TrEMBL record, chains A, B:
Cofactor(s) required for function per UniProt: pyridoxal 5'-phosphate; Zn(2+)
SUPFAM superfamilies xref list: PLP-binding barrel (SSF51419)
Organism: Dictyostelium purpureum (Slime mold)
Entry's Gene Ontology molecular function annotations: D-serine ammonia-lyase activity; metal ion binding
Catalytic activity of the protein: D-serine = pyruvate + NH4(+)
Domain spans labelled D-serine dehydratase-like: 272-376
Keywords: Lyase, Metal-binding, Pyridoxal phosphate, Zinc
Top-level lineage group: Eukaryota
The protein's Enzyme Commission number: 4.3.1.18
UniProt name for this protein: D-serine dehydratase
Enzyme class: lyase
Family membership: Belongs to the DSD1 family.
Cleaved signal peptide residues: none
GO biological process, one term: D-serine catabolic process
Amino acid sequence: MQKDIKIEDLTTPCVLVLDPVVRNNCIKMNERAHSLGVDVRAHMKTHKTVEIGKYQFEKNQNKDQVIKIIVSTLSEARFFSKDFSNILYATPISPNKVDEAYQIHLDIERLNIMFDNIEHVNSMVEFSKTNPKYSKRWSVFLKIDCGYHRAGASPELQSTTDLVHLITKGEFKDYFDFQGIYSHSGHSYKCNTPEEIKELAKEEARVTGDYGKKLKSLGYHVENVSIGSTPVCSHLPDDLTSYGVTEIHPGNYTFYDLMQMELGNCSIDDVGVHVLATIVSVYPERNEILIDAGSLALSSDPGCTHLKNRNSPNFGIVYDDTNLRIVAASQEVSKVQSSNGSPIDFSKYKIGSKIRIIPNHSCLTAAMFSNYHVINKDNNIFKTFKPNKYW
Amino acid sequence: MQKDIKIEDLTTPCVLVLDPVVRNNCIKMNERAHSLGVDVRAHMKTHKTVEIGKYQFEKNQNKDQVIKIIVSTLSEARFFSKDFSNILYATPISPNKVDEAYQIHLDIERLNIMFDNIEHVNSMVEFSKTNPKYSKRWSVFLKIDCGYHRAGASPELQSTTDLVHLITKGEFKDYFDFQGIYSHSGHSYKCNTPEEIKELAKEEARVTGDYGKKLKSLGYHVENVSIGSTPVCSHLPDDLTSYGVTEIHPGNYTFYDLMQMELGNCSIDDVGVHVLATIVSVYPERNEILIDAGSLALSSDPGCTHLKNRNSPNFGIVYDDTNLRIVAASQEVSKVQSSNGSPIDFSKYKIGSKIRIIPNHSCLTAAMFSNYHVINKDNNIFKTFKPNKYW
């Protein structure tokens, strides 16, 4: 039935997912990883759909790779557990989520839990002790701070290595199956050039890889050394495995967005998600357009405001005419201006016309919608994807 | 059943609505308006719930006031049409929404449509001409630009008055029931002090009121002269009716938020919505806390970044200790720091502890959730409100 709906008939604002673009992004990331000898642990947080999750493993050239994913919430873990059996929950576990996490862990091969503090370890052990009927070991990753300073234990602290000892050879060794170490280079979004990102990629690989090597030298088994962020995964060093890295965990690359374009990680034609909006009024006297996609459709992420050559403020650009930019976003409407000040062609941009917007941050934008209209290369809607929502 | 759930048992992140606070905010705004001799056209966009919509008319001291509301989307108009019969749709109508709007208009006393361009008028007339079975007149407001320069026709242009003529005495007079004029002072959020907001309130009242007087002097009937924005409605001039204003249309005041606090429009105890989050890790070595409420729970609205004495960046503050501020928000986690640099008391803020956050912008934050946990003065959850979602 969906086949009969045309883009021009859609209620706006809404999201278009460009199917061939997304699939190509997935293939390219897999090829890049495999040519470097590492696996992709595909992140689901950007799209939150089973369909695109499967695209992330299409034409997987490394036939031996385990299909392994990463999610940003326990709700996602539950959602994806029907189709994936090796899942990593990306946030350090809090005691109030231990029970729910364990139930998911029981249902699949392994729900890997992240820890970076003794309290995480204690809460898992306490659950196991008070529920002796559950004998399955917790499957865990140690989160390492590679310099982003958001989450993760410092690899320089002895207490970090003590944690690994505790769960592998120490008092709690019977409760855990230590899977390896993980870092996230979120600070890559603050880089100014692809060269800076490339340096950061080496730095993350070095910090996390070196800590993996240290643990191995101390006699601990470290199966996975996982690094990532889409910017870093777009600029990996050729000798990645020499650092000891075994897998990367990008997510945004499925959709990309304006931030990734501005950082030099993709081109406009690689962006797999557009917000479709309608022009609801025009103001030739101010050379401005008003559209029906505001902060609740685009998100209010201001994007890479640190980039010097960027037109700001800016909540997205118009796909068909990148000189047109969203300069202000209210809850349900946004204001579009010509970034170089040239007169807008109001014979083309009329009230009722639809425009496509490349959003600043596709992870947040996609999360604003209850479904995605999926289009093929001929711009025909041929599927609807329903993302996981909430917590 | 909901009565048995305690705050400490809630899955985080989630939203708490402070029932007595919200009801008091509604009563105070009504009292303020009525003491000045104007009506409140209550905006639904912040909370999007029927329950709070009704709170906005509780203890309405002006017994003669029509119960009239304003909404930000047609989806909201449909949602609220079961309980409210006089609704204003706040965005200029686009041709693709004319049909849906008219169907709602048929179902209630009046769905008022906003216009600021001849194309809006034309599209409504065209609908009526091609659907002659529908004889009900369109009920419309003219949107006036009072200086915010987002939407609205300029009161200084002859073409604006020509539009009023066209639909009241001109060619299209049989299709329309002209309800009056409307302005929105969104630029009040860029003010620096309550005094500046007070000046802006006078300015909006003057610009919009004067245009209403001009239309009347030209012989047009202007029943409603509507101004607003929560900041302006918090600092109205005592002689508001002398400007010709008949109604105000605030929305955010039901919940308020950190931006309203920082602008001087409310106190922390007036904020009616808190985001409940769990501490998922602590980093004493960096004097930082990690919580499980990120951009998808708080929104990524950076708030009043223009205020000079503000700690920035800042995506919210901790209710119980306003020295603790969210300095960085990722998709699902945020980083909390002590804003004056004093050591965080980690014996109080432990992994697993819950904290309440005052968000920057409650309209966007509330929209991130599928339901609100409503608490009474004793912090017991006694109701759940389900807001309207999407478009």
